[in-house]
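Worked example 4.2. Below are the chains of a multi-component assembly; read each line carefully before continuing.
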Amino acid sequence: MMGERASRAVLAYLKALYLLAEESSGSGVGAPPGLAQRVSTSAIAARMGVSAPSATNMLKRLAARDLVTYEPYKGGSLTQKGREVALEIVRHHRLLETYLVGALGVPWDEAHAEAEALEGDLSETLEERISAALGDPQFDPHGHPIPAKNGAMPKTSRSRRSLWDVGDGEAALIEQVPDSHPDALRYLAEVGVLPRASVTVESRGPIGGPLFVRIKDDKETAPMALSKEIAEAIWVQ
Amino acid sequence: MMGERASRAVLAYLKALYLLAEESSGSGVGAPPGLAQRVSTSAIAARMGVSAPSATNMLKRLAARDLVTYEPYKGGSLTQKGREVALEIVRHHRLLETYLVGALGVPWDEAHAEAEALEGDLSETLEERISAALGDPQFDPHGHPIPAKNGAMPKTSRSRRSLWDVGDGEAALIEQVPDSHPDALRYLAEVGVLPRASVTVESRGPIGGPLFVRIKDDKETAPMALSKEIAEAIWVQ
DNA sequence: TTTTAACCTTAGTCTTTTCTAAAACACTCT
DNA sequence: AGAGTGTTTTAGAAAAGACTAAGGTTAAAA
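Applying the procedure described above to all four chains together yields the following structure tokens:
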């Protein structure tokens, strides 16, 4: 379907580009009108666990292949072609996570790492089988949207509000939790802070102190404490 | 558990070494007493779809890592360490084939290619989950033995006799079919020549001509014709 | 024993992806 | 405007794998 098939490293960079852009700007309902969000070299390097020169180098090679738009000192952004490849990988990743958790009983905090190892080698036909076996799900266990084969994204709320931004006494519906912090995820699962759960923010500690939340309709148990870092990585509706 | 983790290429070579040795010498019940079977450079190159110099080069690097024993012009053979790694991959491959066919409905002729793509990235814990979900199977859908975690091989018949070697009028129990020839496998599945099936050899064509076999207890339908190549790749008990 | 055919290795190159060290740029603060 | 700080890029090198071309080895035929 397209030129030379991409190596594992190329796929990983494209996915990082996509996710970093998604995280920094609401990519909510439709595709953003203009070009995709620009991502800095150092952000890519940090995400990939690689030195800055490596990221620069790869950015230039991706640009030569028309997978990203790159301007020196300005970072890079996915082209249409690059976004298509990235979405394919993201779809693989999220379908695998969903399958591993649902069909093989992998704990959700381990699913991310396992899916990452396999996502690059999933064939189109196996991808289809897995999706079908799951009933073509639209969200993975962490609440992240799974792109359709044609690249369409299930719509999430436009808000992009984090749990940290919810005022004291206010209620909120958990929409997404991060997928890549096993310890935090184990804790969240334990206390019931899962996608689609309703929680109420009770109070928070002094400066950057922990946030105290309570699962809605649970007046008995003590509220749980969430660090600012975690609360900021949880998105609510 | 062991030194530097092996790259995909290294794993693929070790697996090829193992399988080529297994194919050329009966590796039936117990591990062969002496050192493993030696495999020629060109056999490896052919199996890997790589030039002969590439195979020589890799053989030397594997030897430097103590994964194979290599003597110039004499080929290479797996060391104990190398065999352990190879068995791990073979286990991954055959468990994946079994899982894909059984749990996801992948046709058995496609399972080999899919499993090959994934085998190198399967984690130990996922391997365990898959094995458990299948009830720790001992054989894959093609009848190949699945090594246990400790490297023990389920025993197969010592004979190593191919269907081609079965005399006219004689009956035989299918034990293994090849896993890597989709077209042939589709045909075999269609006509019912599967592992554990009993067949009777009716006759064969002149020189290298097709073999005519009939599923036991099926006196009605016409016998099916199998080429010499296929018949030689099917092992019976 | 010589010849020959088949097979194997050496030598040198290429691509991909990474690194470190050092230079160039961008931006902020005064 | 200039200095300083932090980010980015250039430069040069290395490791893993793969290739072609050319030379060396083995072993079977003559």
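Take a moment to check your reading of the output against the notes. The interface with chain A takes residues 100, 103-106, 110, 113-114, 117-118, 120-123, 125-126, 129-130, 133 of chain B (CB under 8 Å). The longest strand of chain B covers residues 198-204.
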